[in-house]
Specification:
Length: 377
């Protein structure tokens, strides 16, 4: 017989299963016959009745009363126990992040709690046509933020100290991030983790440095933005800009990353081996004179991260990625980023990132923002 399945959360898996969101964790249960239940409180029950994609919705107050009558402990532990008791369940599957306290309580009642790994909903890794369009929409909104950033950089003036000034004040990473956040929110997306990475000069050599302080002329500025659209799907986009006059090494580094990314875009298709794609990009940039390694201080330089990751209802969604450790062939209708970069401590970095959907012939490009106009006068 199939095993019953249980979640108590308000995360991406719960949204995938129910198509509703909530401020606090709630319950989803699938019995051994495959019938699905949503157990939720008064604050969200009307939304659930209207929008949830489950077979039956239960008021948590009713489940709580039944749990009390059964002698179970109050709260989520008892709610979960009650649902399993009513079906005479002795084994249940849960996701890897399932609540530990509930697990221990259910085990104390003699129920075998089995973690489903690596993914509770394996089907989440492959996107439907509707999901691909939702990512495309999220990325289009994300691009609005970059258009705003380019406009601000275009309007900015270069001071005698080579600091950028905009509207009479120093243009900082924080100000530019705020302008992008406001633009993205205006079109219905929510900036995540405080908004985009804005890494100027040496800050850009650390791929996940958020960026802070004054932006400088004639220096590389990495902008990486990953907001969530109101359709619940994420965009993820990186471009590198320079306000002023680039040095030759900056031009060469930008062109190497651009060539590496284009090679990756050309190689991605259903059946391709991610490891091979990553290594081809790595070799391409090395052939162009940009090696990878560690310096005398132990700091990484060159191209030292993976090429890409899955995107969906999480910005780093479950599913396929492109790296030197990924050996399984890419699947059709997966959605991944292609984002190689080069980074050199005390000098700066370049990263270029698009989102694409994998097809049997190549890619469906979900990103349309130009990579040519990176030098802003």
């Amino acid at each position: 017989m199939p095993t019953a399945r249980l979640m108590y959360a308000c995360d991406a898996n719960m949204y995938y299963a129910t198509k509703i969101t909530a401020s606090d964790p709630f319950m989803w249960y699938q019995n051994k016959d495959g019938k699905t239940f949503l157990i939720i409180g008064a604050l969200e029950i009307e939304e659930a009745k209207r929008d949830a994609t489950v077979d039956q919705i239960l008021d948590i107050a009713d489940v709580a009363m039944a749990a009390k009558d059964s002698g179970f402990i109050a709260g989520p532990k008892g709610f979960c126990a009650q649902m399993l008791k009513e079906d005479d369940v002795t084994e249940v599957e849960v996701p890897p992040n399932f609540n530990t306290a509930i697990t221990l309580y259910l085990q104390s009642l003699g129920i075998n709690v089995r973690v489903t790994e690596p993914y509770f909903f394996a089907e989440r890794s492959v996107k439907s046509a509707e999901e691909i369009e939702k990512v495309r929409h999220a990325q289009a909104i994300n691009q609005k933020g970059f258009e705003r950033a380019k406009m601000v950089l275009k309007e900015a003036e270069i001071g005698k100290d080579d600091i950028l000034y905009w509207q009479g004040e120093v243009l900082t990473a924080e100000r530019l991030r705020g302008e992008m956040n406001a633009e993205i929110a205006r079109f219905g997306s929510v900036p995540m983790s405080g908004g985009p990475i804005v890494g100027c000069a040496a800050q850009g050599a650390e791929p996940h440095e958020r960026g802070h302080g004054p932006l400088k002329a004639h220096e590389l500025i990495i902008i990486d933005s990953f907001p969530q659209s109101d359709n619940m799907y994420f965009g993820d986009l990186t471009r590198t800009y320079l306000k002023g006059t680039p040095k030759q090494w900056q031009i060469d580094m930008y062109n190497a990353v651009k060539a590496g990314q284009q090679l990756g875009l050309d190689l991605v298709k259903a059946g391709a081996i991610p490891e091979d794609i990553h290594e081809a990009i790595h070799q391409k940039m090395a052939d162009l004179g940009f090696e990878t390694g560690k310096d005398e201080q132990g700091r990484y330089f060159g191209f030292f991260h993976g090429t890409g990751h899955s995107v969906g209802i999480e910005v780093h969604d479950q599913g396929e990625r492109i790296s030197r450790y990924a050996k399984e062939p890419l699947s059709q209708n997966t959605v991944v980023t292609v984002e190689p970069g080069l980074y050199y401590p005390e000098k700066g970095g370049v990263r270029i990132e698009d989102i694409v959907a994998v097809t049997d012939k190549g890619i469906d490009q979900l990103t349309t923002l130009s990579k040519e106009d990176w030098i802003i006068d």
